[in-house]
Write a structure and sequence with these properties.
Blueprint (H helix, E strand, L loop, with lengths): L9 E9 L5 E9 L14 H25 L7 E5 L2 H4 L4 H11 L7 E6 H4 L3 H13 L3 E7 L16 E4 L1 H4 L5 H17 L3 E4 L5 H10 L3 E2 L10 H11 L16
Parallel strand pairs: 2-3, 3-4, 4-5, 5-6, 6-7, 7-8
Antiparallel strand pairs: 1-2, 1-8
């Protein structure tokens, strides 16, 4: 059911692209929330409002994704990435809400990946492990978002049964900061590969950056190098235009920079 508090909400979709072959892997759903002056955008800061907003993003993005899968067979292999705030990660009824949404739009669980941040899982690893493991049992994947943004131990990766790690854009940009930066990123990517975790580089804007990450073994990337966040209609046009391939791609609309 649509929450009328979020009638002004806009959901955009940024493509996730395979670095080796340019294949379209999926989309990350991104919320755009207007200020009261309606001229700029921001996210609500109150946890309860953010939680309700994330649930609405899930519903709207699932509806769009279901439409793409119905219209284009190639869309059925894509993955929809949706951010999950801490309040939702630890809330009662999370599994039931996810299951209801997937059933309502006839989306298989493997097509949904929930993104959580290090900041949200580190305070209570045991509890986070239980939730993520339960999601995995029903087939829903979980990705660690903004990895490398903090100064935390890597040991917690052993504790969480996640499938994917998204490298923070600042960490990605370290490949342009000389040999030490390159070495840091290379070793992190190698570690994630050894742990059999999928890697996605965020904030890609230059082909040189994508080439460096690809050479290190990073699997996928997203950013303005490929496309800005797109409306649901533009994302559908991308699927129709490119089939299984997203690069090179000239977007139909400028989108909104994240």
């Amino acid at each position: 059911m649509r929450d009328s508090r979020f009638d002004a909400l806009t959901v955009l979709f940024q493509p996730v692209v395979g670095l080796a072959d340019g294949a379209l892997r999926g989309f990350e759903a991104l919320a755009r929330w207007p200020h009261k002056d309606a001229l700029s955008f921001s996210a609500p800061s109150e946890p309860e409002v953010l939680s309700a907003l994330s649930r609405q993003v899930l519903v709207q993005s699932a509806a769009a994704f279901a439409g793409w899968c119905s219209a284009f067979p190639q869309a059925q292999s894509l993955v929809l990435n949706v951010n999950l705030p801490a309040l939702d990660l630890y809330s009662l009824g999370l599994l039931e809400r996810i299951a209801e949404t997937l059933a309502q739009y006839a989306i298989p669980p493997f097509a949904l990946r929930l993104e959580v941040t290090e900041h949200d899982v580190l305070p209570d690893l045991a509890r986070a492990h239980g939730v993520i493991a339960a999601l995995g049992k029903v087939g829903v994947g979980v990705a660690i978002d903004d990895f490398g943004a903090g100064a935390t131990s890597l040991m917690w990766l052993l504790e969480l049964p996640v499938q994917c790690v998204k490298l923070d854009r600042d960490l990605v940009q370290a490949v342009h900061r000389g040999p030490r930066g390159i070495s840091i990123v290379r070793h992190i990517v190698a570690l994630l590969h050894a742990l059999e975790l999928e890697t996605v580089a965020e904030g890609l804007e230059r082909i040189e950056t994508a080439d460096a990450l690809r050479a290190m073994g990073c699997g996928s990337g997203q950013g303005y190098l490929y496309a800005p966040p797109l409306s649901a209609e533009a994302a559908q046009a991308l699927i129709a235009q490119t089939g299984a391939r997203a690069w090179p791609f000239v977007p139909a609309e400028p989108g909104t920079r994240v």
